[in-house]
Design a protein that fits this description.
Helix content is 68%, strand content 12%. By secondary structure, the chain is of the alpha+beta class. α1 runs antiparallel to α4 and α4 packs antiparallel against α7. The protein has two domains: 357 residues, Outer membrane efflux proteins (OEP) (Up-down Bundle); 70 residues, no CATH class. It is built from ten helices and nine strands.
Length: 457
Amino acid sequence: MRRSIQPITKNHSRMKKYIITVFSILLFSGALQAQEKWTLEKCINYALENNLSLKSSKLNTESQEIRFQQAKNQRLPSLSAYGSYNLGIGQSKNKFDTYENKNSQSYPAGLNSSIEIFSGFQTQNRIKAQEFTLLASLEDLKKARESMAVNIASAYLQVLYNKELYQVALEQVSLSQTQVTRYESMAALGKIPKGQVFEIQAQMSKDKLNATQSLSTLQLSLLDLSQMLDLAEWSNFDIVIPEINMTSLGIKINPADEVFSYAVVNKASVKASELRLESSKKSLKVTEGAIYPSLSLSANYSNGYYPDSYNPDGSSIGLLDQLDINSRTSVGLNLNIPIFNRFDTRNNIKLSKIDIENAKLEVESTKKALYKDIQQAWFNATTASVKYEATIDAVKNTEEAYRFAEEKFNNGRATIYEFNEAKTKLASVKSDQLQAKYNYLFSVKILDFYKGETLKL
């Protein structure tokens, strides 16, 4: 009697331990569902507001705005004031118009102003060059925001993919648990040898290990996404699982050339390179302007007070009288004609022309890179579509094959190895379907992005 009770007690203890383990995994999964949920839109908006690299790009744009304003301000006249106090030690005139050894003081002051009249159109071209640079910087910021949105979407889909893989792993644990429970009951009644129970338990342990690894991968992908968002605390971070209509995705796959025709005109990367080309052209005009003479208008007002100034009769000249007497105003035109500056201007023009050629190459390179990216996204979308459609039938047929193998196994007409092989194939096919599904989904979303659509699920 003791011999018959002891195995039953062991089996029940083992079963309890397995149930607790599976329950713990499911409980963790439920805890994830109870945590704060982030939609893709929320993730993208949060990153656009808080990401440090985007903040740095924004500061660069603000710097360009200041430089543009500085260029425009060059059209304004300049104005400066000066003043000084001078102390003379030694011989100086006294009120009798004779020299004596004494200290003297003076307080000269004045105003200077100048304005550019002509400088070979350098100021106007410098303003336009800075304007194009500013616009290119704004497009760079837009490009950085777009790249951030794409990276967030990719990480978000990776989490969704890992969540579904985790569910597949849990299904495998559940299937194995059903067989373990059944075999333990049969072994307790003496219908099967205890060795078969150990075999099915070994398979369940393997499935539990796979589920644990899958859970770890899921947690790591959540950590990666939270780090992209620069979240200080990620332990309560989780995302919303949206309803995705896979049947409607194929309708959205436009030809690559059609997508490129829109993207080459509207995408920030192309616009930024084209604006930098225009800035280079204006910079060449600025450099060429140094060939021409420059003309400016200047004005000066000066005055001063000299405590040791005297009238012919020997009386001291007061402050107000001195300010009236010493007042001086001048206006002048300043012409500067470049004759020879060691070929600096000529060489600077050559360098500016080289900059233009480099900017042209950058435009072409950007367009070609964009076209390659669109072609790759279109190819990925079409091939993933075909693969996903194929996996639908594969999953359906593999599920039927698994049910047939399970029935044979339960009736003693198949070995544990045949059953495990069927179960493993089912998990593999489902994993392949998930991979094809999310590759398909991401590729379609990338094409939508190139068409100017908002990234959303």
